[in-house]
């Protein structure tokens, strides 16, 4: 039957005539004529679930997200405001680039923003327009072409791409899905182009990975250039990199308990120091008030001595607290990024970002929490007590 009749009956066109009059297989289409069993429910708001893809400074979407070595993510605007400081605004880790702008783009979060915006169009709009004719209401979405299509344009699409596997889906079905399910389903395998000079621009698709030069290659380069060896397929390499990141993340989780214990001990020590300071101030005031005017000058000297004794200890504790807090924030950012890479990253994103993330996680693995015994103990106010006894 004609394609229009097929679509109205909810069937998929299965063949077409080639030049010799014989039939050739054609990719199956979604059943456009079959209504859903029940009206789709409105998906819940997705903003709170995907706060992690926003800039950690301004909490806004941005097409220019940068990944710092501490694994926090900021947009170019926030980093430009932070240039004189050249530190991460969250954990205060130094930014090694002289410009204050990191080189690594957070491709995962940027691409997730684009895919989420597509989902919002599907869930928020009552009538999406066809991306091609701009006139009719879209009934399907092709994730490969990233286009919304009406029935007529969908027929043309299926005929034109009959040799490929573009699995278009009904807009109504997508509207009933959650954002999480939509992102998981659209985590498609993208084409990796050969890394040889000139091949990427010519569209040479790569499915081979050279372990020696750590690059993706096309079949021609792999066969003709004897310098490339040994080989593995791209899927195996991306899976290996995901596993490597997952293993490092698990090891950091185990080490994190040590930093958390140190952080808690530092907080307790700071509280004890503050309590000791309050108690000593009260004791000084009680003793000095007994002497009234005759020893007012002595009172001021004793208070100043207490402050001087505690000032250095407070500064040291503040620095250690700040350092440990920064390490904990970096670990949290690393765990979160590895988790989102595992859930949503494409092969291209893994290939581009994994070495950078791995180096950052290795740096964290070398860190050790400060040993409590190495810190200077707070003063016991012996000098103050001696002077009070003398008074």
TrEMBL record:
Per UniProt, residues of the B box-type domain are 125-171
An example Gene Ontology biological process = intrinsic apoptotic signaling pathway in response to DNA damage
Q: Domain named RING-type: which ranges?
A: 55-92
Q: What Gene Ontology terms describe what this protein does at the molecular function level?
A: zinc ion binding
Key words of the record: Coiled coil, Metal-binding, Zinc, Zinc-finger
Q: Which domain of life is it from?
A: Eukaryota
Q: Does the keyword Zinc apply?
A: yes
State the Gene3D superfamilies in the record.
Zinc/RING finger domain, C3HC4 (zinc finger)
Looking at the Swiss-Prot or TrEMBL record, what is one Pfam family this protein matches? ANCHR-like_BBOX
Q: Which residues form a coiled coil?
A: 249-308
Under the heading InterPro entries, the entry gives: PML-like_CC, TRIM45/56/19-like, Znf_B-box, Znf_RING, Znf_RING/FYVE/PHD, Znf_RING_CS
Annotated region Disordered: the residues are 1-43
Can you quote a single GO CC term? nucleoplasm
Tell me the SUPFAM superfamilies matching this sequence.
Answer: RING/U-box (SSF57850)
Kindly give the PANTHER family that the UniProt entry links to this protein: BONUS, ISOFORM C-RELATED, PROTEIN PML
This protein's name: PML protein
What does the organism's lineage look like at the top?
A: Eukaryota, Metazoa, Chordata, Craniata, Vertebrata
Name of encoding gene: Pml_1
């Amino acid at each position: 039957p004609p394609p229009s009749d097929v679509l109205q009956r909810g069937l998929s066109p299965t063949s077409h005539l080639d030049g010799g009059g014989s039939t050739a297989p054609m990719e199956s289409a979604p059943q456009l004529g079959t209504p859903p069993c029940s009206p789709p429910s409105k998906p819940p708001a997705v903003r709170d679930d995907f706060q992690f893809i926003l800039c950690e400074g301004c909490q806004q979407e941005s097409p220019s997200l940068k990944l710092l070595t501490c694994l926090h993510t900021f947009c170019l605007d926030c980093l430009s405001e932070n240039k004189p400081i050249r530190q991460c605004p969250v954990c205060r880790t130094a930014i090694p680039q002289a410009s204050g702008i990191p080189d690594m783009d957070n491709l995962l979060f940027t691409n997730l923003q684009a895919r989420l915006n597509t989902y919002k169009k599907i869930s928020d709009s009552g009538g999406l327009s066809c991306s091609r004719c701009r006139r009719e209401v879209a009934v399907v979405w092709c994730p490969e072409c990233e286009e919304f299509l009406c029935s007529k344009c969908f027929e043309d699409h299926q005929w034109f791409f009959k040799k490929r596997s573009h699995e278009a889906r009904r807009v109504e079905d997508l509207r009933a899905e959650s954002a999480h399910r939509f992102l998981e389903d659209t985590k498609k395998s993208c084409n990796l182009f050969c890394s040889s000079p000139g091949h990427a621009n010519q569209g040479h698709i790569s499915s081979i990975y050279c372990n020696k030069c750590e690059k993706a290659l096309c079949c021609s380069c792999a066969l003709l250039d004897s310098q490339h060896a040994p080989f593995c397929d791209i899927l195996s390499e991306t899976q290996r990199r995901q596993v490597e990141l997952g293993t490092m993340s698990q090891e950091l989780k185990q080490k994190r308990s040590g930093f958390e214990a140190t952080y808690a001990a530092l907080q307790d020590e700071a509280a004890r120091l503050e309590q000791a300071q309050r108690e000593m101030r009260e004791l000084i005031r009680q003793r000095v008030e007994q002497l009234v005017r005759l020893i007012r000058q002595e009172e001021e000297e004793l208070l100043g001595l207490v402050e001087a004794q505690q000032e250095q200890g407070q500064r040291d504790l503040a620095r250690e607290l700040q350092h440990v807090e920064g390490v904990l924030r970096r670990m949290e950012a690393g765990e979160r990024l590895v988790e989102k890479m595992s859930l949503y990253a494409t092969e291209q994103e893994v290939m581009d970002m994994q070495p950078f993330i791995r180096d950052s996680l290795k740096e964290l693995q070398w860190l050790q929490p400060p040993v409590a015994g190495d810190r200077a103990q707070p003063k016991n106010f012996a000098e103050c007590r001696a002077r009070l006894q003398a008074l």
